[in-house]
Amino acid sequence: MQFHRQLATFVVFLFFRTTLACSSGAQPCIGPLDPWTVSRLQITAPTPGRDGPLSIDLAIENPNRVTAGPAPHAAGGGYLSFEPSAVNCTVADEDGKVNNTCTESEEASPSYGMWSIDVAPGAAEKVDPRNLDLAFNLNYNVTRWGSILYKVYDGTAHFEVGTNMAEGGCDDASGTCVFNLKSESVPVLVSPTMTACQGTC
After folding, report:
1. Is the peptide bond before 84 cis (omega within 30 degrees of 0)?
2. CA distance 55 to 8
3. Which of 7-21, 57-71, 113-127 is predicted most confidently?
4. First-to-last CA distance in the chain?
5. Mean of the pLDDT values across residues 108-126?
6. Selection from 196, 198, 180, 194 nearest residue 36 by Cα
7. In Å, what is the CA distance from 123 to each residue of 6, 25, 97, 177?
8. Is 35 helix (H, G, I), strand (E, B) or coil?
9. Is the entire prediction scored with pTM above 0.90?
């Protein structure tokens, strides 16, 4: 069963504040990045042979604190940082219109972030909810002290029934099938790669 890629693509935007994470004279927060973690993923799709909306519910966490740029001495020195974040995202397609929400979990510290999630492969017109890649993009952007500071990270994870996903069953009344992460596959790790930067890179 396949669905139009357009119906499975969504973008969510999150904006949070930044904090001064490093004291005056401290080194910038740099180093190898820990992987992002997907702790929940549920896909609801029409049963085979039926048309209908595709919905995705997921939770992803970025555990990394990264330096945005140096703070001037007049502002206290040190480094301005983008903080870790954990978000819960849902998307639903109704009649070709995508409605989505994404909220920060209570445990997460605030950061400046814009999350974008796409169903890959990008060149294909259709995707299979039983075997797909999710492309994650995290875009930090802030203006401080007359400068624009930003970092962009990308990562992709594969989800497949029989590997890290399981079929939760189909409901004839609603005409939908559900797919969930296997408990033994949680969390799914997503390796982030910095693809753009201005500031402390």
Report:
1. no
2. 8
3. 57-71
4. 43
5. 66
6. 194
7. 11, 47, 21, 25
8. coil
9. no
Compute the Cα dihedral for 87, 88, 93, 99 and give only its sign: negative
Neighbours of 161 (CB within 10 A): 17
Nearest to 56 by CA among 85, 89, 30: 89
The residue with greater pLDDT, 120 or 176, is 176
pLDDT tens digits for range 40-96:
999 999 988 888 878 889 999 999 989 888 877 766 777 888 888 888 887 765 554
Residue positions counted in the chain:
201
Residues 6+ apart with CB under 8 A from 32: none
Instruction: Sort residue 78 into left (φ over 0), alpha (ψ -120 to 50) or beta.
Output: left
